[in-house]
Amino acid sequence: MPPDLSHAAARLAQSKRLVVLTGAGVSAESGIPTFRGPGGLWRGLDPLRLATPQAFEANPRLVWEFYNWRREIVAQAAPNPAHLAIAALEDRVPAFTLVTQNVDRLHQRAGSRDVLELHGNLQIVRCSLCDRAHDPGWTPLPALPMCDHCGGLLRPGVVWFGESLPPDILQSALNATLEADLLLVVGTSAAVYPAAGLIDVTMGAGGTVIEVNTAPTAATQRISLSLLGPAAEILPQLLASAFPSKT
Ligand code: BJW
Ligand code: ZN
């Protein structure tokens, strides 16, 4: 086993307060496109330019087409070995918190409980007029879905650029990362705040931060250890090596 992996496994085996922070890369091997990098475009458009309140206001039909397409992909996707390894970690350490930027709910489908969803999720929709939440599940939605309470235009239940994260969820994530002895950062470019700032919270409090990613990220230089490779390969190896008798 590569020395970095055994070092990370030893650190994981000792952890009493573990936080896992995930991004789109953890779902890449489930066939869900990431935002940045190759394959990040949708019909030649940058998804990040569609993930704004301004884009929705200017062209709600286009933005809904984009989100309905993604809801379809997610509905057909299944959790991969990275999601399953993260779910298994929950029962291996005394205190465990999973924080995700992902909106696909694959962590929950892999068995993770109490997932802190920083950026909402694709399953829930919200009324842009009366703010009521609706849960249509993963069934296809009309091109322009309307609120059955007030007739207003529904919007995806996700957090767009310039919008606040759910304050209680962000606070729980901050508390957990502040107290973490180990933060495992998986499949995120660490480019979006305040999520990426959680790395500095753990580092600043003296915790260890280990990254799992197929490429170096904005955080690689300032963290403790970087494991380069696909999450669906590295995480099961890490789990098996840290907890050999239980896997
Ligand atoms: C693999 C792999 C494999 C591939 N295995 N790895 C401080 C400084 C500067 C700016 C700001 C700041 N604070 C706030 C801001 C503004 C802004 C921001 O961060 N801008 C930056 C771009 C600079 N933040 C906000 O606006 C946030 N709101 C906020 O802070 O409110 C208060 C406020 C407002 C305005 C000003 C100041 C304060 C809200 C952010 C909402 C982000 N929303 C999105 C869309 C969600 C809805 C949707 O899904 O459509 O969230 S954007 C998008 O990026 C999505 C993701 O959750 C997020 C992060 O992306 P992620 O997960 O990292 O994916 P990728 O694609 O970037 O990376 C994938 C990684 O996986 C890569 O590294 C690959 O190498 C790797 N990978 N395959 C392992 N198999
Ligand atoms: Zn409404």
Task: Give a count of the beta strands, DSSP E runs of length 2 or more.
Answer: 9
Spell out the helices and strands N to C. HEHHHHEHEEEEHEHEEH
Residue stretches low in confidence (pLDDT < 50, at least 5 long) are none
Range of helix content: 25-40%
Shape: elongated
Query: Main β-sheet: number of strands, strand sense, barrel status?
Result: 6 strands, parallel
What proportion of the residues form beta strands (DSSP E)? 15-25%
Bound molecules: ligand BJW, zinc ion
Structural class: alpha/beta
Output the number of helix runs: 9
Strand ordering within the main sheet: 3-2-1-7-8-9
The average pLDDT value, as a whole number, equals 96
> What is the CA-based Rg, rounded?
18 Å
**What's the end-to-end separation, in Å?**
17 Å
Keyphrases for this structure?
single chain; 247 residues; alpha/beta; six-stranded parallel beta sheet; three-stranded antiparallel beta sheet; 9 helices; 18% strand; elongated; binds ligand BJW; binds zinc ion
Structure description:
With 247 residues, the chain is an alpha/beta fold. The chain has helices spanning 3-14, 47-50, 53-58, 60-76, 81-89, 106-109, 167-179, 197-204, 231-242, and strands at 17-22, 95-100, 116-117, 120-127, 133-134, 154-158, 182-186, 208-213, 225-228. Helix 5 (81-89) packs parallel to helix 9 (231-242). The model has no long low-confidence stretch (mean pLDDT 96). The structure holds ligand BJW and zinc ion (ZN). Zinc ion is lined by residues 127, 129-130, 132, 147, 149-150, 152.
